[in-house]
Structures are given as C-alpha cells and as structure tokens.
Amino acid sequence: MAYFNHTIDGSALDLTHLEPRSLSFYVQKLTRDLTVYVRFSNHCFTCKFDDSRHTVADLIMDHRQRRAYDAERYDLSRRLPTIVDALPGSSVYLTATDRNYVYVATVTTENGQQYPVYFNLRRAPREHPAQLLMMIESAYPVADRRQVLAGTTKISFAVLCAKVYRGERVQPKARR
C-alpha cells in the first residue's frame, strides 16, 4: 500500500517520490556511517484549507486538520528526494522555535521565490534499523529568504546528525 493515497479531481496523485526512504552517509565526527530514515508530511504538497479558495475536491485531511491540494507545492515536492540526498554536504538552520530545522534548497521558482524545507530530526529507537529519524514537516515557496532565516542558528547537517545521535543539545545562538 502506498504511503500517501490521494485522489484529486478523480485522478490519483503520483506521490511515489514521497515514499519513506533511507539516507546513509559517513559522519567524520563519529568516524562511522549513519542511516537516517526519512518520511514526508502531506504539508509538502498541501496548504491550509481556505473555504474561500478551495472546494471539497481539494480537501486532504491531516489527522483533524483540513488541508488542500496545492499544485505548486506538489510540483516542487518532486525535487525533495534530490534535496534530501544533498543534505550530508549542506548546512541547515535551527529555527527560532528550537523544534525544527530548515534547509533552504538551491531551488528558485519561476517567480524568484526560495524553497525552504522544514524538518525535525531525532534519534531512532534501538530496534529501528536506522540510527536517526527525520520527518520533512513542510516545504513551500517563500519570497524572502531572510525572513526564513531570521533568528536561526546555522549548523552543518553532518554535525547536527552527530549531535542528535549522541544526545547532545544543539545550542541556538544568543537571542537579542
């Protein structure tokens, strides 16, 4: 059975690119390989349901939350597997809420918007074959990269993985 199974206007959405996947890479700080099990939220291809803009045909439920299919987010979500594969050599940012991280992909939309990818990362339970679990919470185009990065703390993805694996807290920069 597919991880996501949604139909829009009578057509099944092809969401195979958002099937769970594993990302394995060598972490120098740990002198070992780590495997990250990656899952994707439906927020990668939906937006908040707005009664004035959306119809019941657009409705996708996320537990009790009403979401709507978003064609632009869906099209951009096709790039997420490649973006995830590039994370080991990239820097990410601890968000101001200290709960999530954000990676601003080197994807620029036709109208010049950036594509930040929000995720959380935690250590996997012992019985899981991966060492870390990542949930891509959301990804959507934004006009101003500075607004996304305001109040964030930059960290290498590999260093972040090492810290999460070791159970170390990621320290945000001092907030003013």
Automatic annotation (TrEMBL):
* UniProt name for this protein: Uncharacterized protein
Q: Which organism is it from?
A: Methylobacterium platani
